[in-house]
């Protein structure tokens, strides 16, 4: 149980960070009032959003980017740090991606990169409008799949709280967490049809201190998928289904993958999924390690494979 002892202090420090930051008057950067964004579902939000982010990120005092209620079209945005002070995004509206998958040339739609002391909240929706992509996303069409965007990416993000946000109909994964440290995702809603391919709810890799709490995930692939290099992670109070369950892996497909260790998954309900608690590894020559994995108090309803350790995972029948 030792690996879990590091998780609680990191969450405590994270909460103290935002409590202390809230005592300082933060500067508000409203994308509509200050940067000319239009909530008409037609005008691209990317420039007002990026301009607001850059000003807020440059602020030496805590700042908040505000996206008011309404519907916004967003072609793509890359929000980079480091920032000079803690930064928040208050998303109240619905942000929609272009419905046509050909609008994307790489797997990015909304991306946060190299940000520390960050919070996103507000009850808003990131709508990937993925229905056209679902029809074309087949095993034979891998080049098409390689360009499909993830709804929200967190890359190299440290000390973050993502709270009360909805990800809807992502064209590929809903949320991807890569090389992050001490990031908590709480009270999220993730929604996609059960026939939507490769729409993992939350995927992560090479990250430490990830906490996923009290979230509802309905999608067409893994509700949560845990990649190599994930350490000291807590998943609790999740409702999952439809989908493929909560999975560690797949692992072992590539050389030099980092170990997965210190994962605790508890008090979850999994309903109408193909799998429940799963570990999946490729039948190849690349070795790896998975250790200190705890599935506890998991309720499963109508799950054909409730517990599955699959060391012959081979989705493309090779």
Automatic annotation (TrEMBL):
InterPro entries, per database record: Glyco_hydro_28, PbH1, Pectin_lyas_fold, Pectin_lyase_fold/virulence
One Pfam short name: Glyco_hydro_28
Which subcellular locations apply to this protein? Answer: Secreted, Cell wall
GO MF annotations, alphabetized: polygalacturonase activity
One GO process term, biological-process aspect: cell wall organization
Please list the reactions this protein catalyses.
Answer: (1,4-alpha-D-galacturonosyl)n+m + H2O = (1,4-alpha-D-galacturonosyl)n + (1,4-alpha-D-galacturonosyl)m
Annotated function:
May function in the depolymerization of the pectin in its walls during pollen tube elongation, or in that of the pistil during pollination.
**Protein known as:** Polygalacturonase
């Amino acid at each position: 149980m030792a690996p879990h002892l590091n998780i609680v202090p990191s969450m405590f420090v994270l909460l103290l960070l935002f409590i202390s930051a809230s005592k300082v008057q933060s500067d508000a950067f409203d994308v509509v009032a200050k940067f000319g964004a239009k909530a008409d579902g037609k005008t691209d939000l990317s420039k007002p959003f990026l301009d607001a982010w850059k000003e807020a990120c440059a602020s030496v005092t805590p700042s908040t980017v505000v996206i008011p209620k309404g519907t916004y079209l967003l072609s793509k945005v890359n929000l980079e740090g480091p920032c000079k002070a803690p930064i928040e995004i208050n998303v109240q509206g619905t942000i929609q991606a272009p419905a046509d998958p050909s609008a994307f040339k790489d797997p990015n739609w909304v991306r946060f990169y190299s940000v520390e002391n960050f919070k996103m909240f507000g009850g808003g929706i990131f709508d990937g409008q993925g229905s056209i992509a679902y029809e074309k996303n087949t095993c034979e069409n891998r080049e098409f799949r390689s360009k499909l965007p993830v709804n929200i990416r967190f890359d190299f993000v440290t000390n973050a709280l993502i709270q009360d946000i909805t990800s809807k109909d992502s064209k590929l994964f809903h949320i991807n967490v890569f090389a992050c440290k001490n990031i908590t995702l709480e009270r999220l809603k993730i929604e996609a049809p059960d026939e939507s391919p490769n729409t993992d709810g939350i995927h992560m890799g090479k990250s430490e201190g990830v906490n996923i709490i009290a979230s509802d995930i309905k999608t067409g692939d893994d509700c949560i998928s845990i990649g190599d290099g994930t350490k000291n992670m807590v998943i609790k109070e999740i409702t999952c289904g439809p989908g493929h369950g909560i999975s560690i892996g797949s692992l072992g497909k590539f050389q030099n993958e980092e170990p997965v260790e210190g994962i605790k998954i508890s008090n979850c309900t999994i309903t109408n999924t193909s799998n429940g608690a799963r570990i999946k590894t490729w039948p190849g020559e690349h070795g790896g390690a998975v250790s200190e994995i705890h599935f506890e108090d998991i309720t499963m309803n109508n799950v054909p494979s409730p517990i599955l350790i699959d060391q012959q995972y081979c989705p493309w029948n090779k």
